[in-house]
Amino acid sequence: MAARRTDPRRARHAEPAALGRGDAGGDGRDRAQPARQPRLPGAAGRVCAELRRPGASARRERSHAGADRTGRPVPRTAADRGRIPDAGVALSQPGVRGRTRRRPRVRPGTNPRRHRRTDRQAVTPEKQALGLDLTDNVRSNPLTNHSRRTFLGATGLAVAGVAVLPATARAATPSGLRGELDKYLDRLEADDLFSGTVLVTRDGRTVVSRSIGYADRKKGIRNRADTRYCLASVTKMFTATAIAQLAQRGSLSLVDPIGKYLTGFKPEIADHVTIHHLLTHTSGLGDYMQIAGYFAESATWTTPRQMVDGTLRYIRTESLAFTPGTGSKYSNSGFHVLGCIVEKISGESYYDYIRKHIFRPAGMTASDFTLLDQWRTDSRFAHPYPTDASGKRYDALDGDTFGVIGSPAGNAFATAPDLVRFARALNDSTLVSATYRDVFVTPKFPIPPLPAKPGLPEVTNFIGYGMDSAILNGVLITGHLGGAPGISTSTEWYPGRGWTAIHLGNYDAAPGANVNQELRQLLAS
């Protein structure tokens, strides 16, 4: 079971077409122009017409010399020189002698909307850092986009925890990456070791999109890019983001004890386990699925309400494995309690809250918590195929392995493109502010490293607030993994490198078939 974008919507003046295209250095724009010039539409055409008028060069000379149109000197102070230019002020083009670019004024009596273009399609650094394919025919100009985010991105500085580099400053895509990954997936497919979808994007562009195997073997339905997979514990990122939203609104504090919101727990749990402990797996609570009788009873539940309330009833019977904050133990129970706190504060069901406040604003139109009956019958969903003791694969939906619906700890459904959208929306402040995003995605403490596997570098892992991190070859990786019978998933992004890597499988992870590990090795090289 367990496993808005506040991109600035400022309208900006259209930029004129490049000037002096055929000039050979100096201020060669005063040379005679051909008799017939192509007419440019709108503001660009008016600016070019102005430049061709007699005396235009002299006016520019006076402008560079600090004089106005009448020839009178214009006083220049230090403050004037340091000010960001307003509309209509000539901007020098770095590296081009004597050239200027003008942002046209809007003449009285004209429609100003004719001279503006919105930023809907502008490719800002944040949009490039994470997400889906973006329009490439509109360039973001750091000189005319004065927002803090774009300025920091253009200068190569980090933007609130997501190190954003201009595209020219990023390391080139590793040569042969597509070929290496295709060979790896070809081998897994030939040996029937992986079935699922792999999606890798960089700077808003798809680098690899590959689906192999079958979503439903019995019906012969193959996996596709839009196949919906059970996510297992990748779901925990949605629950953590919901808590971040409520914390940002001031509806809760991360140090609040759970007894402030929920009743029925033992005093040592209600008074001492905090939301921070639940998010970091340091509460001492364990895994409700390991409690005697849980699977037998949960198989009889037929509604989402029964799933949430019935699971919480079992968790209330748990005892702590250690004093809260003194140890670490992966806890599905802890994340289910977080989902119940979301319900208590918001007044909505957990499922409705995630649909309304996570999936919808992120544009995750193919994501949801799906009922078991639909999972079994809807051809858009991938069936999980674990192996039995003899190594034979079987459809886990034929038994009672899975309950009526997923929980705050796991088993939401999504497509690979939707998970790219989630990563983008989380990092571009669509879902939470940059401040609270940083609080939740940054590492809180390291996990003792496991011995490195032969031929592989050591990985340092960290626990965060629902989003975990790893350092491999000096590269930071953030996201979450998931696993359940017949399910292997991961959603990770690479701050500062622009990579987002998704793998959704409907087979168990197997030795020699760790797709997430292979993606990390390739992208962090």
Structure description:
Mean pLDDT is 78; it is low at 1-41, 46-52, 55-101 and 112-169. The protein has 17 helices and 18 strands. Helix 11 crosses helix 12 (332-346) and helix 13 (350-362) crosses helix 15. The chain has a domain at 177-448 and 460-524: 3-Layer(aba) Sandwich (Beta-lactamase), CATH 3.40.710.10. The chain has an 8-stranded antiparallel β-sheet, with helices on both faces. The chain is α+β, with helices and mostly antiparallel strands and 525 residues long. 29% of the residues lie in helices and 14% in strands. It has helices spanning 42-52, 56-64, 78-82, 125-129, 148-155, 177-190, 236-248, 267-270, 275-279, 294-298, 304-315, 332-346, 350-362, 372-377, 416-427, 434-441, 515-523; strands spanning 12-13, 91-92, 100-101, 116-117, 158-159, 162-163, 196-202, 205-212, 214-216, 221-222, 229-230, 413-414, 445-447, 460-463, 468-472, 475-484, 487-494, 499-505. Residues 191-514 form the Beta-lactamase-related domain. One of its GO terms (cellular component) is membrane. It is found in: Membrane.
List keywords for this structure.
14% strand, 18 strands, disordered N terminus, globular, Beta-lactamase, eight-stranded antiparallel beta sheet, Class A beta-lactamase-related serine hydrolase, two-stranded antiparallel ribbon, 525 residues, alpha+beta
List the helices and strands and how they pair.
Layout: E1 12-13, H1 42-52, H2 56-64, H3 78-82, E2 91-92, E3 100-101, E4 116-117, H4 125-129, H5 148-155, E5 158-159, E6 162-163, H6 177-190, E7 196-202, E8 205-212, E9 214-216, E10 221-222, E11 229-230, H7 236-248, H8 267-270, H9 275-279, H10 294-298, H11 304-315, H12 332-346, H13 350-362, H14 372-377, E12 413-414, H15 416-427, H16 434-441, E13 445-447, E14 460-463, E15 468-472, E16 475-484, E17 487-494, E18 499-505, H17 515-523
Antiparallel strand pairs: 1-4, 2-3, 5-6, 7-8, 7-18, 9-10, 11-12, 13-14, 14-15, 15-16, 16-17, 17-18
